[in-house]
Amino acid sequence: PEQVTWAQVHRAVAAGKLTYGMTDPERSNSGFSALVSVASGLSGAQAALTDADVRAASPKLKEFFAGQRLTSGSSGWLASAYARRSTVDALINYESVLLSLNR
After folding, report:
1. Sheet strands side by side (includes 68-70)
2. Cα separation values, 38 from 3, 16, 46, 63, Å
3. Phi, psi of 85 (to 5 degrees)
4. What is the mean pLDDT of residues 43-57?
């Protein structure tokens, strides 16, 4: 499949076409890693993310987080909740956790 960018995900969320689950960046490494990745992608940062990059991306980050409908402090719990009652369209998690859902 075509590689999906954070800008494409953001546009889908902002248009109300996509909801997702993601762990809490304050309580989970996977959530924090995802936040850094999204901020980098939405700011257009070409090197290490800076405060200025985060400020530039803040309006888009707010729109992005409006699509978050499922959260947890644990990657494993989040994946289990997603598998039990898929009330969201997508799941942002570690690749290994996502692959385990296909078993």
Report:
1. 68-70, 20-22, 90-92
2. 15, 18, 13, 12
3. -145, 70
4. 92
3-state class of 76 per DSSP?
Answer: helix
User: 13-45 pLDDT, tens per residue?
Assistant: 999 999 999 999 999 999 999 999 999 999 988
Task: Say which amino acid occupies 90.
Answer: A
What 3-state class would DSSP assign to 48?
coil
In sequence order, which residues have a C-beta less than 8 Å from that of residue 41 and are 6 or more positions away? 5, 6, 7
- In order of start, what are the domains of the chain with their CATH numbers? 6-100 (3.40.190.10)
Burial 54-81 (b: 16+ CB within 10 A, else e): bebbeebbeebeebbebbbeebeebbeb
Its pTM stands at 0.89
